[in-house]
From TrEMBL:
SMART domains: GGDEF (SM00267), PAS (SM00091). GO terms for cellular component: plasma membrane. Keywords: Membrane, Transmembrane, Transmembrane helix. This is diguanylate cyclase. NCBIfam families: GGDEF, sensory_box. PANTHER family: DIGUANYLATE CYCLASE DGCM-RELATED (PTHR45138:SF9), REGULATORY COMPONENTS OF SENSORY TRANSDUCTION SYSTEM (PTHR45138).
Amino acid sequence: MNRFAEVRTWPLLAFALLMGLQAIVLVACLGGHAAQGWLVWVGMASLALTVLLAVAMVSSLSRAQDKARLAQRTLEEAIDALPASVEIFDEQDRLIAFNRRLVEIYPHMLRHFQRKSTFEDLVRESLSRGGIPEARGREPEWMEERKQARGKQVSPLLQRVHDDMWLRIYESRTPSGGIVGVRMEVTDLIHEQQRLAASRAQLRATIESAANGILTLDSGGHVLEANPSCEQLFGFTASELQGVHIGMLLGAAMSGHGAAVAAAQMDPQSLLGQPRELTARHRSGEALHLQLAIAEVRTDTIHLYVCIVTDLTERKRQEERLKRANELLARQSTTDGLTGVGNRRLFDQLLQQEWQRAARSERPLALLMVDIDHFKQYNDCYGHVAGDDCLRRVATLLRSCVGRGGESVCRYGGEEFAVLLVDTDLAGAQVVAQRCLDSVRLAAIEHEGSPVRRSVSLSIGVAARVPLLGEASQELIQTADAALYQAKQAGRARLICQQSA
């Protein structure tokens, strides 16, 4: 700690004057009153006491000065050891004391410090060296602003010096009119704040430009912030979303009491973990399919939740369209393109499926093999276009006779159809077969080329049995086909029943 001490000599002069006065008294006594010897002894004793008193005072003063110097040295060493600079200005704003740290901050200013320069002179010197970047280009104005604020700042002054050093400056005015200044280097803190600000700006830009909706919730699940994607997703502005409970926002797909219950039960803490799919509604009422992922942010002073909301609505629509397309493709792959009934592939699948089910449940399964009589002659007589129309009409009649949705009627090949009857014994199958014969007969589809009658007729082979586990389903087909062959041999336009063994 450097200070400019003033040597005070008046105590020594006073002591010398006192000694001179004692000497004069003694001389006067010796010269003018020799007879009064006792006065001489009194004066000498007084002088001796004065000398002893002076010696004692000097000794005490010396000890006090030693203590004061020790205290001052200790104080100066303590101030020099401070990590912050300390500067003391008198009432004329001249630097009268400073510590080592100030010189470390401004090494080029040491001579000016030692000259007891004024604060204004010190600042002008720094400005001339370009040591205050924020004042460059406006030095006079900055200097005037600094002088006006000198010792009056309510809060510390933050100042950048030497391009890469930041100081926080505290100034306090003393009762005598001087100013004590403390300068703390906060470069690392400012750099950390700058990095934090840059990180926040980057995070904000990421959130604002994110394609997914991002919501910030308080500990109770109420919306604090919402990014633009969230505004677009729900159709509400960020200010409208603020304060809304997450349960009300995501429970909007429900109505009335259900929405209130969903809101009450949707606690952010319960939504932590794996992303989950939820439904909601746009402001317009459009249904939304969303995926919600929630993360918890907890510190000593903060407890928040961050929600990432992904819009799955279009993906769900695509999935639904794909599902319908696959169903259509599956139907097309198992549907006869001409008649609209099942094709041979569907018949094979149904037969295998129902055969195994009937075997497990020990229930009967029946099969009708249906053939259009003399269909080649029909094509020769009316043409293939009319023949196709005849096939379609017969398929429609068969489906109406079978009932149960008609899915068990399949085109077996050419003019031949197969009808699979679940949980139907031979008697029941015979009834269905007779219904088919009567329906086609009553439809009276003209057939001039038929030797049997002048309209289209059918020959039907009927078979039924209770399947056994391990048996092949082909046995039922063979039995029904054999019955069909017998019907044709017997003159056609009839049905033949045959119980499968």
